[in-house]
Amino acid sequence: MTQTSTRPRRLSPAEVHALLGEPEAMVKGKIQDHIDEYFRLFIAHSPFLSMATADAEGRADCSPRGDYPGFVKVLDDHTLAIPDRPGNKIADSFRNLAENDGIGLLFLIPGLRETLRVNGRAYPTDDPDVLARMQTEAKDPVLAIVVEVAEAYFHCGRALIRSRLWDPASQALADEIPSVGEIAATQFGMDIDPMALTHALEEGYRKLY
């Protein structure tokens, strides 16, 4: 018998609100419109963030960004700059920002349960003064993303606690996943030794700088 696929029921905003209820006053009050001294400290120690953008049609993309702690620079209380390091050159984020300049950032610090969320507007720049501040091992990025901050606030650690993200025992989960070489060889039908492909990719990672 052929099964008919059905989409899960869509809830209205009113139904969602009825289920979740109102946030506490302290939760609403923690949202700021600028980067204060504590946000600066968090950003200065963060080596990783997730960056969310969307195009004019609302098609969303979330991109990982990482480098040495403090790779994102605070230009002033209302402005951040994110270096664009070598990657896959697909440039989804840049295409999205050309159509829709809204952006959302989620900063993480290894071992810390709380995260920092920053929302605002963004655009690419090649300003030499900005790029010079992002020099890494004598190399400047070609581009940077300037973020004009509209909201910034700390997010509680419930998600990271539940996920056990920083628990060393959780790293054993990686052993249950095929290597990136095995996955690529299968997905792209490549007639190549998966182990050799994995080594080649790892060598490429080591040459990022």
TrEMBL record:
Gene3D superfamilies: Electron Transport, Fmn-binding Protein, Chain A. Residues 36-156 form the Pyridoxamine 5'-phosphate oxidase N-terminal domain. Transmembrane segments: none annotated. NCBIfam families: PPOX_FMN_DR2398. This is Pyridoxamine 5'-phosphate oxidase family protein.
